[in-house]
Amino acid sequence: MNRYGRLARDHWKSTDPGRFSQIQDPEEFFSDLGETVEFQIQDLWLQLSGPDPAVPENTLDKVGRLNMARLQAEEVVLADLVWLTHLRTRKPWSRRTRAGSTCSTRRSGKRRTRIRTSIGPAFRPDTAGGRR
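The chain above was modelled as a monomer; its predicted structure follows.
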């Protein structure tokens, strides 16, 4: 089993133990999944890295370009095949605040807007005290 198979096995086991327990042969399943993930990452990596540019690039630029393509390919394939995102119950940018209200923070430019959803009116630091 390669590292992607182990990663998937550990993630599925901790995230959705019920689904994990229904797999007949976890060793074979995650070995196959790991190989599939690895091959898809390699294929996508080659597509994302593309051909070498017409203007010669130095070694560090080329290594950086290829590493970034590899990381992007891993992110896409792992999101598609490994991460169990259907189990999330709330948006990742939301956080719980006192008294059970949910609060989201959005950055727009240099201003930060905070929106409260169940306690009082919206709080906007950029307009606090009547200043703009």
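Residues 26-49 form the longest helix (24 residues).
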